[in-house]
Design a protein that fits this description.
The chain is mostly helical. Helix content is 59%, strand content 0%. Helix 7 packs across helix 8.
């Protein structure tokens, strides 16, 4: 009889913990390390994008790239919060004088580089797309190269391909098909899965 009561209590305890987890606000899923950089990211995003900057998207992207670890280094050599490859660090330093220092492990430099690169890519997405679609393009390009996305757009054969048509053409141009799962999943994870956690930080898409 006692064993049954203990089992019942255990089941109730597990159920209560599960309910509590679902009841936690999305902000509770934001790493503590991120909070110290929130104000800096907001200021940096506003400087590059204006007051309607999609701050929640940038915060989600930083989480996806490095989990907010300034010293992060990937197995292929990407560095810092924004996970810039050395070649991209050199390129963007030439694009923006404020990034000339080339300091991917510096938090301020890394956040400025991320929002600057996103702006550059966003501006090269088709203007006929919605803002969210243009960010989808920018994120795919950030992850896998703008040239690959443009080649896939051309591979559709359409004069003005839709976002879905270009996504469906992944792996049918210069990009190896083996990379499509990661590249297509990158904007989905940022915009759909992670972005809601940062809704309190500012606008999203």
């Amino acid at each position: 009889m006692l064993a049954r009561k203990d089992l019942a209590r255990a089941v109730l305890l597990v159920a209560a913990c599960a309910l509590l987890a679902f009841a936690l606000p999305a902000s509770a899923q934001v790493p503590q390390a991120a909070q110290q950089h929130r104000a800096l990211l907001v200021r940096t995003a506003h400087a590059a994008w204006g007051l309607d900057a999609p701050v929640a998207v940038f915060a989600a992207q930083v989480y996806q790239e490095s989990a907010w670890r300034p010293d992060a280094v990937s197995h292929v050599g990407a560095q810092g919060l924004a996970q810039f490859m050395p070649a991209t660090t050199r390129w963007i330093a030439g694009l923006n004088p404020n990034l000339a220092a080339q300091q991917p492990f510096n938090v301020a430099w890394s956040l400025r580089a991320l929002v600057t690169y996103d702006r550059w890519l966003y501006d090269r997405a088709p203007a006929r797309y919605t803002p969210r679609e243009r960010m989808h393009v920018a994120l795919r390009a950030y992850n896998g190269g703008l040239g690959h996305w443009q080649a896939e757009a051309a591979a559709t054969g359409a004069a003005q391909p839709t976002l879905a048509q270009v996504d469906a053409a992944c792996g049918k141009a210069r990009r190896a098909a083996v990379h499509c799962r990661e590249n297509l999943g990158y904007p989905h994870r940022i915009l759909v899965v992670i972005q809601p956690r940062y809704a309190a930080w500012g606008p999203g898409l």
